[in-house]
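Hi team, as promised in this morning's meeting, here are the two structures we talked about. I've kept the exact order from the run log so nobody has to guess. The first one is mostly here for context; it's the second one we should focus on when we meet again. Sequence first, then the predicted structure tokens.
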Amino acid sequence: MQNEDKSGVLPVTVRFGSFVIDSGRRQLTRNGVEVHLTPKAFDLLVLLVEEAPRVIRKDELHARLWPGTFVSDATLVGLVKRLRRALEDRDTRAPLIRTAHRVGYAFGAALERIEGSASPVSRWIVNGGRRIALVDRETLIGRDPSAAVHLDAGGVSRRHARIVIDGSQAILEDLGSKNGTTLRGELITEPTTLYDGDEIRVGPILIVYRSAERGVSTETTT
């Protein structure tokens, strides 16, 4: 059986205008460049696209986006505004997201479903001359011999940090290490999204995060 994404609908890849949304990878791109959306805004977009052109009532959106939790209408309105801003949805004559006043919202653009177009992403860590593939949902970095990214150096904690694969994203998290984890030159204090080429300093050790679509050649530099 096909896996469902976090919005509760089956994975789908759809094009509208210059945008492509891949719900399985939880990724929205415009002309091939990823557009940042918060997880909840992405879930809202997937719901609207999957149900288009039907108007989804506000109470249904509340139930599907925040199951078992009470949130005000203002929260939904704010979420719609953020999504419209990310989509640059400014044409009031032909909006991407149409408001049915006092009822709900609908997706208004023409949609083209893309069959079989999902392309898995290869992810790896470069440590000196080593290239370590990130194949599991969670990859441990540290001095522990069982760590997938094993860094045997003073200043590296046994369980120093981890990389978690969440849909299309790779997220770096420090695990309470003694000397901290630095990303892009700054000490991280909360889970942070990784991007291709990011430099990570684990204690005294510098490693590089790399990613690419399978079949696309990417030069590895150290």
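And here is the second protein, the one for discussion:
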Amino acid sequence: MRFLEVSERAGRYVASLVETAPPTPGKGELLIRVAASGLNRADLSQIAGRYPPPPGEPEILGMEVAGTLEGSGERVCALLAGGGHAEYVAAPAGQVFPSPPPERLDPTAAAGIPEAYVTAFVNLVVEAGLEAGQTVLVHAGASGVGLAAIQVARYLGARVAATTRTREKLSAIEQAGADVAVHAPHGDFQGAIEARFGTNAVDVVLDPVGAATLAQDLAVLSPRGHVIFLATMSGAQAALDLSLLTKKRARVVGSMLRSRSREEKAALVARFRREILPGFDDGKLRVVVDSVFPPERAAEAFQRMRDNRNVGKIVIDWS
């Protein structure tokens, strides 16, 4: 089989297709013929040497795929800790779930479900206990996870505000269902949130930005609200107003999906299948695909993500 090997040289990505034997599924694993694999910023961090896969997981890049089970041809998606950017992957059975029917979702787009939508579900529902009628704030709202989180929150009956630094991405946030789309090129979003929802109105903040947004996250947060940090794109060190944190009885949570055990991921995927996946079958949820690249042009795909030009998911088509 072929898999992608990607490196960075002088600020640009270089990708090559490398031949190797297909993986042999271990105990509790299923062999998937990959039709498409989704790109994630975690891939960029792994290329930079900052985010290696957990011990025992494949060193090959790629954390989500859509394809068919070898032997049965069943259409499936899989959440992975690695190995997805290849023609075949051995996926833990508990992290494999049925792909939506092709008449509801393009098979290539299905590769954008596992990492983005399971991440959104885990952090909104499992970590923060989101309920209908509550208010959610999503930063980087036009990213793959951002657009997924907007849709999942609305699917569950919440109000949603989302931010972006790029004015041209506002329409995508609105089309995903956000009640408020905030253009925040310099990081100032508190005024827009309070103008629409009032003070202390946000129950859950989903934040991949980090240091630059923490103070305002706490400022707009409701009593007993949750700020969930997924990444630290603006930096990992920030001052924390402990007085405000205690006054609001708030929760600041760090969350990472990739490092969780296979057993924990299996339990989370099982809940996702029950509570969220039906939304794709009835058309209430959809994957926003920014662009699709063949593996021979993978370097362009990775560069597009690094340059922050994508709106939604970038996908590699292996079919």
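Starting points for discussion:
The radius of gyration is 19 Å.
Residues 114-127 form the longest helix (14 residues).
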